[in-house]
UniProtKB/TrEMBL annotation:
Matching InterPro entries: AA-Vitamin_Transporters, EamA_dom, EmrE-like
Presence of the UniProt keyword Oxidoreductase in the record: no
Protein name: Permease of the drug/metabolite transporter (DMT) superfamily
Region (Disordered) residue spans: 36-56
UniProt superkingdom: Bacteria
Family indicated by similarity: Belongs to the EamA transporter family.
EamA domain residues: 63-196, 216-352
Keywords, alphabetical: Membrane, Transmembrane, Transmembrane helix
């Protein structure tokens, strides 16, 4: 094999391994058997799903922590998958296909389990808004990755937990952040800034046009993180919080599929270059593992655990994203990253420290 063939083979093997891992996780999470110690979800045909009554959310336990680490690895690999496929599929069209395929999978999953997706439960407005925000997020990601590296996109995109925690703090009762948790977020963000400070300087060196392109890609990453956070806040602050994970996800995928494919057509981005096995596996990974399996797991976790505590684990995703970028895309790696990783993990430990008893 030559160098490019070796890289593609490694990418394909890595993708298949992540797909197998994802399906093991989804069977563990979404199987009807209850998780030990967890409050079982309401039945799919429970008409009380849109009422205020719901199980109290709790701090992440060991199962939730391990699941979030796996999800962060899956999401970190996503940037590499998108970046490697942009040469074969136009970015917005690729995003639309991803949402359309995943929406069909969610529809089939819900149908097989008897979960209603089209019942009038008062979630339509919030669902449409979540879908628009979801589409906006992926416009930012896919277009941004044509301008900046996968590593930098991962860093800027995963500022989302900061926006999420702030929004939930103001809009959702029971999601208040304590001072030590805010300190943890600051420490983790400082770690990421340290890890990528040299990389940002090198990446933006060169002509004024390349610098502007890089800054634009970085800005799209931050905007993508903000819209991701806004989607989470809409879900938690509306009746979608009482709906099934399948319905919540279907809203986002179906609405974004329509919007993204329409936008791709309007931009003339519906022409497809020669499809390679790498491009097909990448699209399959994005649609099946990321947009279908991992998002169902994520929304399932949001119904069981405090969202702001879960979201902070997303700081791990840039660590995985950089690792995959180095191994598969040959992106640079700074030794400062090791110190930054310690800061990030320390920040997560602070955020997930035991809460003080009420009234203490």
């Amino acid at each position: 094999m030559n160098g490019s063939e070796t890289t593609e083979h490694t990418w394909l093997v890595g993708s298949s391994n992540w797909m197998r891992t994802a399906f093991v996780i989804v069977r563990r999470v979404l199987d009807p058997a209850p998780v030990p110690g967890a409050v079982p979800p309401p039945p799919a045909d429970d008409h009380s799903m849109s009422t205020p009554a719901q199980p109290a959310r709790r701090a992440p336990d060991s199962f939730a922590i391990l699941t979030m680490i796996a999800l962060c690895a899956i999401w970190g690999f996503q940037q590499v998958a998108i970046k490697s496929t942009n040469a074969f599929l136009p970015p917005v069209f690729q995003a639309g296909l991803r949402s359309a395929i995943a929406a069909l999978l969610v529809w089939g999953w819900a149908r097989s389990r008897g979960t209603p997706l089209f019942r009038d439960d008062g979630t339509l407005g919030a669902g449409l808004l979540a879908g628009v925000l979801f589409a906006s997020e992926f416009v930012c990601i896919f277009l941004g990755l044509t301008l900046t590296s996968a590593s930098r996109m991962a860093v800027f995109l995963y500022t989302a937990p900061c926006f999420t925690a702030l929004g939930l703090h103001w809009f959702v009762e029971g999601e208040r952040m304590r001072r030590i948790q805010w300190a943890g977020i600051v420490v983790a963000f400082a770690g990421m800034a340290l890890a990528f400070s040299d990389g940002f300087t090198r990446a933006h060196a060169g002509s004024a046009s390349s610098t502007l392109a890089g800054v634009t890609g970085d800005a799209l990453g931050v905007l993508g993180g903000a819209t991701w956070a806004a989607t989470t806040i809409v879900v938690r602050a509306s009746r979608l919080a009482h709906s099934s994970a399948s319905k919540t996800l279907f809203y986002q995928l179906a609405v974004s599929a329509v919007l993204l494919l329409a936008l791709a057509a309007g931009l003339g981005q519906v022409k497809v270059a020669t499809l390679t096995p790498l491009a097909l596996v990448s699209l399959g990974y994005q649609a099946v593992v990321v947009a279908f399996v991992s998002y169902l797991i994520w929304f399932w976790l949001l119904t069981r655990y405090v969202a702001s505590r879960l979201s902070v684990f997303s700081f791990l995703t840039p660590l995985f994203g950089v690792t995959f970028g180095v191994l598969l895309l040959g992106e640079s790696f700074s030794t400062r990253f090791l110190l930054a990783a310690v800061l990030v993990l320390a920040g997560i430990a602070l955020v997930n420290g035991p809460a003080r008893p009420r009234g203490a």
